[in-house]
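Comment thread on ticket #2218

A.B. wrote:
> Attaching the input chain for the structure job we discussed in standup.
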Amino acid sequence: MASAAEQEAVPEHAPERAGPPVWPGAPTPLGARCRVGPDGVAGTNFALWAGGAEAVELCLFGPDGTERRLPLTELTHEIWHGFVPGIGAGQRYGYRVHGRWDPWTGARWNPAKLLLDPYARAVDGDFALPPEVYGHVRDWPQQHVADTVRDERDSAPYVPKGVVVQDDDDWADDRRPKTPWQDSVIYELHVKGFTRQHPGIPERLRGTYAGLAHPAAIEHLVGLGVTAVELLPVHQFAHEDHLLRRGLRNHWGYNSIGYFAPHAGYSSSGTTGQQVGEFKRMVRALHAAGIEVILDVVYNHTAEAGELGPTLSLKGIDNRGYYRLQSDARRYADYTGCGNTLHVVQPQVLRLITDSLRYWVTEMGVDGFRFDLAAALARSFHDVDMLSPFLAVIAQDPVLRRVKLIAEPWDVGNGGYQVGAFPPLWTEWNDRYRDAVRDFWRGALPDVRDLGYRLSGSSDLYAWGGRRPYASVNFVTAHDGFTLRDLVTYERKHNEANGEGNRDGTHDNRSWNCGAEGETDDPGINALRLRQQRNLLTTLLLSTGVPMLVAGDEMGRTQGGNNNAYCQDNEIGWVDWTLPEDAGRAQLLALTRRLLALRDRHPVLRRRAFFSGRPQGADGLRDLAWFTADGTEMTEGDWYAPAATLGLYLSGRDIPGRDERGEQIADDSFLAVLHAGPDPLDLRLPGPPWAESYELVVDTAREDQSGPPGTSHRGGGTLTMGGRSVVLLRVEA
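C.D. wrote:
> Ran it. Output below, let me know if you need it in another format.
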């Protein structure tokens, strides 16, 4: 094998290595930080963890692309560092890391490849993926060993650069909403997809952080009644090679490469640090409107993929230190389905993640995180471990334990499905809620046992260890899968536009097309589809737990049956703001607003504690009771019998806890009835002691949802429900 010196490529026109002096600087904090050095000299301190590296060069780039290489000679606890006088905000930079090339042992150092600082807080440029950005010879004739042959071509002209950013914001004028979990309503949106076609946002701001901060965007969120936006990934990400070759792009952003940098593609103001300020202004604007900001974060894998993927950052800094490798160290352990998995039990990886999380809270103002494939982060060396270093560090961290933490509680590895298993600080995406509600409304549940648990907070999953009903983030749809409209329009996925032969995306949609596949002119089918959308939204917003809506579902957004629109940065993946011009879509939007306003007014719909189901007074009334269609309480046998109807009585007089003034919480009582059968139902309403009379508040059989029905019905009497509908009644006396 050739020596390290023989392996290193020397460019035809070697860059200038003379330049500013490099003073020793400090090993902390990691990254590039503007500071005042000795004798009051301003400059920037650079610090990079590169365990096992033999040398590190800091590469500074001028406006014309000229590169100056400065060796970092100080090494403290595997951190290479130096202070460069005169370097300030806006400076573009990267690293070249020298070391052994020995893929058989996992060593993949290649100084010909310019590497992005993992701690870079802004990134200038986009990731293309020509052969030069791969550490190995991508087009080697023997592809089965291509990853073992080092590529000597310089990647600097083809990769983005990190940008030095000035620390100049103390957030003194910001007021975080700090919405309690039980009062939260999450709205999942994509920064670009939500704003790209909004007619009230100026064209130059559409698709950007500034667009989301615009009053027209915030007006919709406030008018809807949500308390938090959950942003699809905004960490700097790269587009996959297979997408670029098909003329597509990664739209969702689950391909991170910079955990401190807001994605530059969503900036309207510039990419040499301006994106940082624009993101902060967006957060401030949302906070001022009472809306929290939750980031969907992807710490389970990076855009460098597996052994045949590009060398962009961590792979070239210390491949063995950052990634989980198999016993054959050429190969990567892949619990994510994306080619690699970060090795979170390694201290430096754990530090990278927690430093990033704290940065986004303390310096960027965000209020919480949703962790993509969180089970991968909870793995120790192989198995998912709820005492893993990652979860232990989060539990004791004084910053992170106070923000909202949401787990996607699964990964693709063995034993990766962990719904209900995360510790008390965490809430979880509850896919069992999604499946049960979808199955009920398409007539596929064998009985109503599972539905009962899901409607009442999923106590079978979360009533342990001090967890509360808000541990369950309830959702019917998410970015991944059918939209609400497509859920009632398609039974099969239609992902042909993705260019993968319709093989991508899940086959398990649990959808029902109401009688025709795809869009139709049949008025009966279209009316049924709108009713089913009303049913699903009403079920979600009346359920105990934290509801999550997906941007556009409240207006009937469609993706044309595409259930995996991750690469559709076009009208398929963007919200269509003309939808409310249709009467049916406008009525759906009005119903969503009414339901959220109702939820906000009534604490019985957003409980902080699980129901007991036991009598609370001498009259025998319970905080939660279940009823059949004939007005009698459910028996044990009823739970196991086939049924298309389920009623639940929510008592407002037995709500545990006290308000901010220490007073007992009291509310109205409600009866909700879900009827998934196709035919009308003569529902007998429970009489005394449950209620003397009821006021009809919501009836999804009605097309016009602009106002409450307001009709009164006697307890013990009969109410005729339409087929496939929900009614909500308030107890009057």
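A.B. wrote:
> Thanks. Noting for the ticket: The CA atoms of residues 195 and 545 lie 28 Å apart.
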